[in-house]
Design goal:
Blueprint (H helix, E strand, L loop, with lengths): L2 H22 L6 H8 L4 H7 L2 H24 L5 H18 L1 H12 L3 H26 L3 H5 L2 H19 L6 H13 L21 H10 L2
Helix pairs in contact: 1-2, 1-3, 1-4, 1-6, 4-6, 4-7, 5-10, 6-7, 6-9, 7-9
């Protein structure tokens, strides 16, 4: 197998793995099922990736890379907490429609019984925590809210919340309760506006009277 054919096979397997998890779940994402969807021999799953879990992680990496690029552009337009809440809602809807939530939820669920998979997923969450922290620092950094709730802590909370919403989506058939959470976030964001305002620092007031004259006299020494 030449390099070009090998690269094409890898791409087909990654795409097939993501689609198989979305439609059949982690339990149904066997090497045979993925290979059938890709139109290749199941032995190539092990030849190119060493097993099913590494292949599924490669599919997650591919989705994360694409989303990081797309969502980086989206959040770059947000200048206020209200705009950021609106963007987060749009991101959630896009993830849901594209099947990213299913892919991530299935792997998180499988990791409960597979510690080695759990460690890999935790490692892949770090870039997203950094991404959220940098976004929050840009939007609320230097404000009273940032001093009350540091962007790093908020980033942890946001990623944890998002993972929880991903898992709960499978239980919330009509998505009414998960949608209500994002609606609540959009309603609360304007009420936090005062806490996100950056006030100019006050200049120190110069002393008056004899103390001021003494201060001026010392300035010439």
């Amino acid at each position: 197998m030449n390099k070009q054919a090998g690269a094409e096979t890898r791409e087909r397997l990654i795409e097939a793995a993501a689609e198989t998890v979305r439609t059949e779940g982690y339990a149904g994402a066997s090497a045979r099922a993925i290979a059938k969807a890709a139109g290749v021999n199941s032995a190539l799953v092990f030849y190119h990736f060493g097993g099913v879990d590494p292949l599924l992680l490669a599919a997650l990496d591919r989705a994360s890379e694409q989303r990081m690029t797309d969502y980086g552009r989206a959040v770059a337009q947000a200048r206020t907490l209200e705009e950021l809440a609106e963007t987060a809602t749009a991101i959630y809807q896009a993830d849901l429609e594209a099947g990213h939530i299913t892919l991530l939820s299935e792997l998180v669920g499988a990791s409960i019984a597979r510690p080695e998979l759990r460690a890999e997923i935790v490692k892949r969450s770090d870039p997203w925590i950094d991404f959220v922290e940098q976004t929050l620092e840009r939007v609320i950094g230097g404000s009273p809210l940032a001093r009350l709730m540091p962007p790093r802590d908020l980033a942890y909370a946001a990623v944890t919340f998002y993972l929880g919403v991903n898992l709960f989506t499978h239980l919330d058939a009509d998505r009414s309760r998960t949608d209500a959470l994002f609606t609540l976030a959009r309603r609360l964001a304007p009420r936090a506006r005062l806490l996100t305002m950056r006030f100019p620092r006050r200049r120190p007031r110069l002393p008056h009277g004899p103390a001021a004259r003494g201060h001026k006299g010392r300035a010439h020494l």
